[in-house]
Each structure stands twice: as C-alpha cells, then as structure tokens.
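Annex B, item 7. Sequence and structure tokens for protein A, then protein B.
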Amino acid sequence: MENTQTARIINRFKSLNLSEGKIYILGNRIELYYLLDKLPPVWNTLIMKIGNDYYLDVESRTIREIKRGKVMYIVIPKPIDANFVPLVDLTTYISKFYTPLYEDKDVQIL
C-alpha cells in the first residue's frame, strides 16, 4: 500500500477486531471501505461543497442512513476532511450516539 497512513488505519481497525458490523467513514476516504472489504452504509460517500452550499439534505440523509443501516463504528481519518467540518448536525449526532474506542495521530474510531 503506497499511502502509509491508510495502511496504519487499516491495520489498526483490523487489530481491534472490529471487522463485524457496519462502518461509516467520516471523510472522503472511500478507499478505506474497499480495503476493509465493507460496503458504504450511506448513499453519499463523498461530500463536496458546490459553490458555497452542500446538497440540501446531505446531513439529514446521512444521519438517517447511519441509523437505518445500524452502523456500529464511525471511522474518522485525521485530519478531518475540510468538507465535513461545517456539517454540524452530522458531527453532533456522531458525538452524541457513539463512544470513542481508539484514537491516535491517524484516526479516531468510535
């Protein structure tokens, strides 16, 4: 694997024996789904600003899909993707309903 941070995140996730259950990756790092052999539980795996706005319902839709999909783990690669920083409703939901399991310089896993 060329990206050493990606390799460390994958190895850490696997070493924590978290392979059972669905994950959501908070960030535009869709390669992590592939390398962990997981399907994304949400429709919008990539979130980008369009002009000064996001898709109108990207936060509420993502929250609904996380709930409906019974996501067990949230993976937050560091630094947090700038496209996700303004998504206050989503990050508030995650911090309210998920407990930190692991954190280092590369990733936080809840």
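Protein B:
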Amino acid sequence: MRKFLMMIPLAATLGFAGCTSTGGIDTGQIAAYEQQVQQIAVSICGFLPTAATVLNIFVGNPALGTAEAIAQAICNAVTPSAQLQARKRATMPNVGGVPVHGRFVGR
C-alpha cells in the first residue's frame, strides 16, 4: 500500500508529461516552475524536493502562490525540529498534507 501511495505523485507528473497543454499552461512552464522552486529550496536549506512534490504542493495549496512561498514551506517542513515532530507522530514531513519527498544536497 505504501508503494502505491508513493506512486500517486509520479503518476500525476507523468500525466502532465503526456500533454502538450494543460488548460492553457504549457508543460514547459510547469517544468520551469518546478525547477525554480527546487533551486530556491536548495539555496534556502540545501533540500532538493522532487518535481512531483513541488507539483502536488502547488496544486494542493493554492495559498502558496509563489515559488518562494512553496520553497520556504518545504524548507520549514524538513528542518530538524519539524522532522523530529513528524517522527513522533509517525508521519512524513509534509506541507498542507502533501508529503515532502526529496534529499539534502550540498549548497
């Protein structure tokens, strides 16, 4: 079941990859936005979120309307204190209920 749930973000990303357009938004624009969020997150906290994580947060949390806001929310979720709290609750770090997947990289 856990592997199935982890595949949902990938399926969503692949679904967009097969389209030339998504409601007037070019898939190239989506990819560029995902990369922008990733670059900002790496510069803020050294964490590289997956593209699927960025997309799911963008879709699931319209209040986080800018790349900077999404990157900051991701960094807030993966700080050591936030990770400790997530472990205590036996949950993954998340932003608005969206699990955060990725890895720490050198800045």
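Comment on protein B: Residues 27-45 form the longest helix (19 residues).
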